[in-house]
Write a structure and sequence with these properties.
The complex is a heterotrimer of chains A (397), B (177) and C (371). Chain A has helices at residues 4-42, 58-68, 79-95, 116-124, 127-137, 141-172, 177-186, 195-208, 220-223, 233-258, 277-282, 285-312, 318-347, 355-377; strands spanning 264-268, 271-275, 394-396. By secondary structure, chain A is mostly helical. Chain C is mainly alpha-helical and 371 residues long. Helices cover 49% and strands 12% of the residues of chain C. In chain C, the strands form two sheets. Chain C has a three-stranded antiparallel β-sheet. A three-stranded antiparallel β-sheet of chain C has the order 4-5-6. The longest helix of chain C has 30 residues, at 94-123. The chains are: A mainly alpha (397), B alpha+beta (177), C mainly alpha (371).
Chain lengths: 397, 177, 371
């Protein structure tokens, strides 16, 4: 029989990680389909609809095609760097999934690390090296520029990315994602008191992932395909996989930090209302599955948000993008930290210790309400007769 | 008239309304009808005047060569000889077509030949609503008189697979340009 | 200690955002452009020389292939130049004039839509591309209904039009005119206010009015700099004098102003089409050809005629020797070619990302640049 400690520290984590790994793979494959489909629907077209019902098997056809494709290595490429490039971002992107609580503990957390958040930040920031290396090793000027842009991006957005979380840390008083999620059950979702932090996190995570409107390293209209211009076949697929895995990680972080993680409900007046951690834990494994599903649904919403941004915004210019990161996002996050800190301290020791948080929450609610109000008030959608673009009859053959 | 610059209120800037407006637009568009035509299954019906593949009528043609003259890129090849024939009891000298070839692969479908044709109805016309002209061989796009008149039995796109096994029966002159 | 070296990059001819086969030889310092040198000629087909070997009516389909996204205006320029040469300008029937204006304004819309689509996708907004193509499709459907082709229209003849309008065409046009305003609003929702779009275009590639005139720039880039010069107004042709429309002008001469000018031009074109729908009712159906001889053999002489194409002043200079049915020499003044000259000056000191915005804002078509 396997001894208990081995079981606890080696076997179970491995099994859990493998399950998480498979789920991540499936989600990434599904994302390629969802991205193309949703983007197409935003653009008045249909997107993939050929392979299988509604084009669903496109998610399988694409990797198969990439696997079967000839692997071309440019003649004067730096061979070692060229091979390492796609591998490097993949490793941290997958390792990070060990640290993310997909559902209520203990079952759905692969490894419960009490400084998990710090470790995640450290790991995700190493992903960019592969991009820089691949861009440089391709021996292509456009790739090189893509790689350098990526480096600049990392430098200017890693800081606000980290700083935006500090507000949450001050509120919850922990680096432990499980505790952060459980904190949100007894208080409001962190997005309300930390609206500014959430916004900075959203911008920074989009930038970290090289996604539109910050997709400068692979800006196809400027740098052909950026750092992966010279990559094809499985190597390209690795870059692709790493990008989507990183997107998934950041969405998971977003959900855990700001949107209540796996729980849907809260602790009101000391009573467990809705699907909170405690209620889910009562349900046992079923509760865990429900929690993980809620988590995944929330994560997918943010994945769709990435697509939505891509479908809507133009691309930043290199210098403006750095401006935004260094001159706006960093000061803004610092201000956010200072204001949050002052408000929390102002409440501490008085008769209303939660005063600061209440003020921050009210501010968040007011801003969100104002945005919704202004958007509703905006110019009415003008009449546009449906489907006139093809007034000509279509013949079915 | 000078163009109007959009006015920016500070509230709009602060609340990122300019960005959210765009997000709203794309979101609205999600639920609007799509315009994609799934090509081989669905096809657009060409307009009545659509300039597509040629059709030639030997019976109507009077061998005047006006189309060949009108053609800007000289891809209509016509050979004619004179013949004396008895029509209505009189001997008449008429022109008889020997050759009427069009090198369709070089054609730019301007329909000047159709316009130049003096017969009524036209002996050469492009309004056949046919646009799927791709072939596997360049020489298949050189059409002679018979082919120009009876190209209908050419295999269509979706039938090509079956027809590809056996020789199609068209013996075509190759590379005449 | 550090050896600083400028990098030379070949931007094109196979590059996604050089709009065809433009090649720009870039010298860059980091991302900053030190020198940009456009190299053209990859699409040269000798159109001008071809005109010397062809009868005048045969040249019309060849003019389609110069600015292949705006062939109606290319046809119009050539046809009017020849009419001027043979002295037939005065006898063109009214219906022909209105039809020509309608087609060229539709063409302006379709050309500007293509410009907006590609300009936006160059700057990274990919969605307007599809919206623009959706509406452009309607314009192309109208062209197809009228003349049977969607792109290379060959839709005008010397002294008239090839055909009368088909039944139901005007209703279809009215339908398009009805929805187009809302469509332009939709593009503007996505771009005009967007702060990223503004950051990418405001102050990029500033062209002062004096510079613009010195470079010989015409069309929307010139008007974006604030010079009130539209050949439809200053040297009116066809039935433009009867029509009411504004010439939009910019103030700063940057990419954003040129964008606004073109957006407004689309709205004005829609307005012209609206008026044409009324005007065409006052003409006699079927009157689509002036009485000119079938064989066109102009007297000895030369003529220069220019029209306002979507991209600027499109001029045809034709010399006739009085004996043959084809031009002795035909020179085309393509707006894209002349406007492209300004690219090195505009691009200097900007970033690589701006170069694609600048190529987009000049709105070149390589078929016209190289001819």
């Amino acid at each position: 029989m396997i001894p208990e400690p081995l079981m606890r520290y080696l076997v179970w984590p491995t099994v859990k990680f493998l399950v998480a790994f498979v789920i991540v793979q499936v989600v990434v494959a599904a994302m390629t389909y969802i991205e193309r489909r949703v983007l197409a629907f935003m653009q008045a077209r249909l997107g993939p609809n050929r392979v299988g019902p509604w084009g669903l098997f496109q998610a399988i056809a694409d990797p198969v095609k990439l696997m079967l494709k000839e692997d071309i290595v440019p003649a004067n490429a730096e061979k070692v760097g060229y091979f390492l490039g796609p591998m490097l971002p993949l490793i941290p992107a997958f390792v990070v999934f060990c640290l993310i609580p997909f559902g209520p503990p203990p079952t759905f957390v692969v490894t419960h690390v009490n400084v998990g958040l710090l470790l995640i930040l450290a790991l995700t920031s190493t992903g960019v090296y592969g991009i820089i290396l691949g861009g440089w090793a391709s021996n292509n000027k456009f790739s090189l520029m893509g790689g350098l842009r990526s480096a600049a991006q990392m430098v200017s957005y890693e800081v606000p990315f980290g700083l935006s979380i500090v507000g949450v840390l001050m509120l919850t008083g922990s680096f432990d994602l499980v505790r952060i999620v459980r904190y949100q059950e007894s208080h409001a979702w962190n997005v309300l008191p930390q609206l500014v932090g959430c916004f900075i996190f959203l911008v920074a995570m989009t930038a970290e992932n090289n996604r539109a409107p910050f997709d400068l390293p692979e800006a196809e209209s400027e740098l052909v395909a950026g750092f992966h211009t010279e990559y094809s076949g499985m190597k390209f697929a690795f870059y692709f996989l790493a990008e989507y895995a990183a997107m998934l990680v950041n969405s998971c972080l977003m959900v855990s930090l700001f949107f209540g993680g796996w729980s849907l409900g809260g602790v009101i007046m000391g009573r467990q209302v809705g699907l909170t951690t405690v209620n889910l834990q009562h349900l046992g494994l079923l509760g865990g599955v429900i929690g993980a599903t809620i988590f995944l649904v929330k994560v997918m919403l943010f994945m769709v948000a990435y697509i939505w941004f891509r479908g809507t915004f133009p691309r930043f210019r290199f210098d403006q993008f750095m401006d935004l990161g260094l001159k706006w996002m960093i000061p803004l996050s610092l201000v956010n930290i200072v204001v949050t800190g002052i408000l929390i301290l102002a409440g501490a020791g008085t008769r209303y210790p939660a005063m600061g948080e209440v003020v921050l929450t009210l501010f968040g609610i007011v801003v969100i309400a104002a945005v919704i109000l202004f958007l509703m008030k905006g110019p009415k959608p003008k009449a546009r007769p449906a489907g006139v673009a093809h007034a000509r009859r279509v013949s079915e053959v | 008239m000078h163009v109007e610059y959009p006015k920016y209120k500070w509230t709009d800037r602060f609340l990122l309304l300019d960005m959210l407006e765009g997000l709203k637009t794309t979101f609205r568009e999600l639920f609007k009808p799509k315009v994609t035509i799934r090509y081989p299954e669905e096809r657009l019906e060409p307009a009545d005047r659509f300039r597509g593949m040629f059709r030639f009528s030997f019976d109507r043609c009077i061998a005047c060569k006006l189309c060949a003259v009108a053609c800007p890129i000289d891809i209509i090849y016509i050979d004619v000889h004179d013949e004396t024939r008895e029509i209505d009891g009189k001997n008449k000298k008429i022109k008889v077509l020997d050759r009427y070839d069009i090198d369709v692969k070089r054609c730019m479908f301007c329909s000047l030949c159709e316009e130049a044709c003096p017969t009524k109805p036209k002996s050469i016309w492009l309004t056949t609503k046919t646009y799927e002209l791709a072939t596997h061989d360049r020489s298949d796009l050189y059409f002679n008189m018979q082919q120009l008149e009876y190209w209908d039995d050419r295999p269509r796109y979706e039938e090509l697979g079956a027809a590809f096994e056996e020789p199609s029966g068209h013996e075509l002159p190759g590379g005449a340009d | 200690m550090f050896d600083v070296q400028e990098m030379e990059v070949n931007f094109g001819p196979q590059h996604p955002s050089t709009h065809g086969v433009l090649r720009v030889l870039l010298k860059i310092d980091g991302e900053r452009i030190v020198e940009a040198k456009p190299i053209i000629g990859y699409l040269h087909r000798g159109t001008e020389k071809l005109f010397e070997a062809m009868a005048y009516p045969q040249c019309i389909p060849h003019t389609d292939r110069m600015d292949y996204v705006a062939s109606a205006t290319n046809n119009l320029g050539f046809v009017e130049a020849v009419e001027k040469l043979i002295g037939a300008t005065g006898i063109i029937p009214r219906r022909v004039k209105v039809m020509r204006v309608m087609l060229s304004e539709l063409q302006r819309i379709s050309s500007h839509l293509l410009w907006l689509a590609t300009h936006a996708i160059d700057i990274g907004a990919m969605t307007p591309f599809f919206y623009c193509f959706r509406e452009r499709e309607m314009v192309l459907d109208l062209f197809e209904d009228y003349c049977g082709a969607r792109l290379t229209l060959n839709c005008m003849r010397i002294g008239g039009m090839p055909d009368d309008l088909p039944a139901g065409w005007l209703e279809k046009l009215a339908e398009f005119v009805g929805i187009f305003e809302a469509a332009v609003d939709e593009y503007e929702d996505l771009l005009t206010n967007n702060r990223i779009w503004k950051r990418r275009t405001v102050g990029v590639g500033v062209l002062s009015p004096e510079e613009a005139i010195e470079w010989g720039i015409t069309g929307p880039p010139l008007r974006g700099s604030g010079v009130d010069w539209d050949l439809r107004k200053v040297l009116p042709y066809e039935c433009y004098p009867e029509l009411e429309f504004e010439v939009p002008l910019g103030r700063n001469g940057d990419t954003y102003d040129r964008y606004l000018v073109r957006m407004e031009e689309m709205r004005q074109s829609r307005r012209i089409l609206e008026q044409c729908l009324e005007l065409i009712k006052t003409t006699t159906p079927g009157e689509i050809k002036a009485k000119i001889s079938r064989v066109i053999r102009p007297p000895e002489g030369e003529v220069y005629h220019s029209i306002e194409s979507p991209k600027g002043e499109l001029g045809y200079y034709i010399v006739s020797d009085g004996k043959s049915q084809s031009a002795y020499r035909c020179h085309v003044r393509p707006p894209s070619f002349v406007n492209l000259q300004a690219l090195p000056a505009l691009a200097r000191g900007h970033l690589v990302s701006d170069l694609v915005a600048l190529i987009g804002t000049i709105d070149i078509v390589l078929g016209e640049v190289d001819r």
